[in-house]
Design a protein that fits this description.
The structure is a homotetramer.
Chain A (H helix, E strand, L loop, with lengths): L12 H9 L12 H14 L4 E5 L2 H12 L4 E6 L3 H4 L4 H5 L4 E5 L8 H7 L12 E8 L10 H12 L4 E6 L2 H8 L14 E5 L9 E5 L5 H10 L8 H11 L3 H20 L5 E3 L7 E7 H9 L5 E2 L15 E7 L6 H13 L2
Helix pairs in contact in A: 1-10, 2-10, 3-9, 8-11, 11-13
């Protein structure tokens, strides 16, 4: 009954096979190899247009490098106040951008709205040098709350951003889960909706350590190239992360893995829906879900062998707020989560005193 | 009827006299001159202990240099969410600290409370590398709302900070107004209450361009020395800012100026207190006050010759919130504000249609 | 016999008169005042074209802000390996630029040559992300060695820079001395010769603390505006540095002061030229000169009441190198240096044992 | 005949086996897993003392994170003027340190000497805020020239550093090759000789992407932890780089690989030693060597199927300098270089025109 994190799972065997296949003969280092060329071409296919691709090994690197290219050091990035870049990356975006500000915006269900952005911008004044200048909007899809923006919602947020000349970034650490859940194309969910730069995540969904900054705004490519090198994120034996991503995209492995994780999460949500022991904090749109329970229920679940993290912070904003004697738990399903584990957890909840 | 800003006023003649007196013969540059020595000694007297003094020419420089020395780049500074360092300095603290985070904390009446700080720290976890590490607390005295922390309040906030190993900073852009209002000593309001570093402001209260970082934690002196130079804030002809500060402290000019400004502000507040045309947003403790009025009243006051700024943002948090058809105005009195202007403004408000 | 530094001297009385005149009535702060408008117009006149002007209070700030706008953080600035930005500013340019590299280039007589620049660029490769990307050239006029680039030399260096798409910066801490020495116009020595950004110094030549970044490339104005604020270099009572610069430019005070300093320096050089006790290290083109002497001569001069600094480092490159038992002394004349002092120093040298 | 780079080679099969073995069951992410614990223990064994280990995926990250912890932003790092951190990392150390300066020091044979360091420090003055403050010394072992410092040389350099309170760093991108060549222990070559922090490289010698910062100064561990996270270098599925390093250290694979590479390099050097077509630029101590040849020889070798890089820059300092019509070639042998290739290259050189 392991629901701690999708980062905690291993990888499918095919990852090793793919890397072995790339392990032939000497090739030029630092990304000038056939595997890197191939993955770039595959990304162009996936997104149905020319894109520039910068592989890195962590999502934090992808986010921070992306946002550093989208905002000057005196700029600001609008993001949800519980987003990963705001809360969980030890200030990586501030570091890479030379001290830009993240402006955290509240939003129910883990999601931003154009109205909330308007409100957050109340203080800022374009052209007034006393204020940092908002320059980019960052959305997280799947959000930190496990919810998903619809294509319309993304479009409206991007419109709101563009009307103010902000650039737009999507933190797609769980990109596959979102695409799978929406049943749309990768293009639909990104540049067609107005996204300029994407952090494309693969690690949480089956790669060892492979993420990519995908640029739809090709003019940023030059800058990304230097920023990645300077950040120490240019892998010399680039064929190995490339091989992982090739295997990930080939035969739709990325979607299969994500679909499985989402289905397991759905099963779990359905099984818990009517429980009197806990209630959901947010909508369950993808492979992670948050449930609120009494401390004593929490203790019994742990004692019963369930593994998951409790969540810091205030929990859901608006409705459904956590009470004093309660905790919020995050339950994450991944590509290798089993139906047995899901059923066992549901049964355990039912049987908790 | 000029109430725009204390920065908009000139300086007392004595400032020029003092600088002229310092204009004799060659002296060693960059702070190794008798005037700089003298002002350091005067600050030690003022604070009744040894302090290290670093003159700079702007309050933003004083704040950013101070806070950069108090927090690592992966750290965070807790401050009021409408404080000058948070809102009005174009990210100077983020820049000087190498990308540390300012954690804005809400608080009524422009003031922080130990409870609000506790709440803000909910997310952070000492020693967990995924989170920025709060390292300093910054108080603004006089606050941006024109209110003043009592000595007890400062003491309690500093205790809360120290119990978590945070360093403490006071943004004293209007230090004199606060000391004058509280009737306490400079020592009482700073290190005796637990403050480690002070941004001592003089410019708003009668200097041309003279502020000082005052260190009560002398171990930071070495670092400040390099940071000031590297920021381009070491004045070569240091005798001139020194002369300003000498004149400022001598014969209690600083307190006289502040007392006058506070008194004018009190007269203004008293005269407006029962007006039906506007209401105060916050307590009036020092030389600035905020009043809420209908848009049409605002327009008439401007048309009548009053000069003041409206204030962006949500205005007062909690009680007394601004309505849709209202604005918040900031009225600032300074060392040279006249009773005539105050009376004229009160009369103008009374006579507004 | 004071020849330590032009920073050590005071200021002409007219500076105080000018500031007093600006000390009337309230004006909008932070540069939106008539005096700031006036000095901007005066700079446009001086340079015979539209320029953008950003006043600051130190030369280090002017240099670092300028260069930060000319190079990305992964860029490099070419400069003389003994230039002020390289050696004497505690890494201010590295700080303001977010970690760009200064590439120090050797050059005789304190001056860069196109050839030396070519050689320094041997390692760099445009577009190769493994190398920092040279982006700007910075010249110091008057150079740190007291020498002056001819207009042709500036033109050739700027051509060499522009052919590689580098921007060009002039550190004009002693701008007046150079213009006076060359007998050219301010325009000739800057944008007409290919300079994009100038650090215009006044402090060393008679102001209290007033320098200006002068942009000939107006597209940089927006960026400078934020960078200056963020660096804490926007003076609230901007009328006072403006008043200094107005007085400085009015009635050619800047040229008069510089001419005097240069003349005194010339007298000094002439008087020392045939001395057997010391020899000049570099050409004497302006108001500072370097002489090499035996340690024992140095001691006797100090004992005789002369005040000057010895110079660290290897001293002159190429010809004329310092020997083991010798020191290099820097002798600086300023706007208030007297003929009496110059003569006294020459006599002292003659009479040294 | 591939001699381009050790980064261009693949990895031994055992790497994949090791990672597969680590691919079992869910484990806590971000380094809190048994494989990360094991590799830390193995490093303690290897270095015969307690060390703190921070795995990263590139040598640039290891170097920049290390040096950022050893120098304040106003500090300087002394290093060879052709070292990787100086020339090839796009300013990563400047970036991570917040703008510290790298002071490049010349040295024959790619190596620093205490004398050269003394000379480089001529300009700096401890405690004088006008100068950046040298704070660390970084050695590269194997050097960029392919030479190796003896234990005595390392000891003397570390002594020189420590006598000035500098911290010491070793860039050990080719650590194994150096240890193998010297026949000493890992401890001998590092902390026993005075090194505080080591960048331990494995990628060039057989790992996919696995390097480690090894701290002998344990007080830096806290800082490294935050800096690594903030730089985006904390791998979530940490077990996989750990598995690589476990396989690398187990059964002395690291030494076997390095010994082979060194031997191939020795064969190559011996075979070329008496050639009239080229001459060595530096001593050949490990797995890379530099040869100087006429342009026409270069062209013929390439035409004959040899693959190697020419080297930018001036080439060897002092003796043996490159002539106008010559190039410098770098020939690198790796863990999988074959005797056949070496012999073929030697024969090709012999048979060239």
């Amino acid at each position: 009954m392991f629901f701690k994190s999708d980062n905690s799972l291993g990888v499918p065997e095919v990852m090793f096979e793919a890397m072995k296949k790339a392990n032939e003969g000497p090739v030029t280092a630092y990304g000038n190899d056939p595997w890197t060329d191939k993955i770039t071409a595959m990304f162009c296919d996936l997104f149905e247009r020319e894109v520039a691709v910068f592989m890195v090994t962590t999502g934090t690197a992808a986010n921070a490098l992306s946002l550093a290219a989208l905002t000057p050091s005196w700029g600001a990035v609008l993001c949800h106040n519980e987003s990963h870049i705001m809360v969980d990356e030890c200030g990586a975006t501030e570091f890479y951008s030379g001290g830009a500000k993240l402006m955290g915006v509240a939003g129910e269900n883990g999601k931003l709205t154009p109205e909330a952005i308007n409100q957050a911008l109340y203080y800022s004044e374009p052209g007034n040098e006393h204020y940092v200048q908002p320059a980019a909007l960052s959305l997280t899809q799947v959000s930190e709350a496990g919810t998903i923006y619809t294509l319309d919602e993304i479009g409206m947020l991007c419109d709101a951003a563009r009307s103010r000349n902000f650039k737009t970034h999507m933190d797609g650490a769980r990109f596959a889960n979102a695409v799978s859940s929406l049943g749309c194309s990768a293009a639909d969910m990104t540049w067609k909706a107005g996204i300029d730069v994407l952090s494309f995540g693969a690690t949480k969904n089956g790669a060892l350590a492979a993420e990519a900054v995908v640029l739809f705004d090709l003019e940023l490519a030059d800058e990304l190239n230097y920023r990645r090198m300077r950040g120490g994120h240019l892998i010399s034996k680039s064929r190995f992360p490339a091989a992982q991503l090739i295997a990930y995209l080939q035969d739709d492995l990325w979607l299969k893995n994500a679909r499985h994780a989402n289905e397991m999460s759905k099963c779990l949500a359905d099984g818990l829906q009517n429980s009197s022991k806990l209630r959901h904090a947010f909508d369950v749109d993808a492979n992670l879900q948050f449930v609120i329970m009494k401390n004593e229920v929490h203790e019994k679940l742990i004692a019963g062998g369930a593994q998951f993290y409790t969540w810091p912070g205030r929990g859901p904003q608006g409705k459904n707020a956590k009470q004093e004697d309660e905790i919020i738990a995050r339950l994450v399903c991944g590509y290798s989560t089993t139906k047995e584990d899901v059923d066992a957890f549901i049964a355990l909840v039912e049987n908790v005193g």
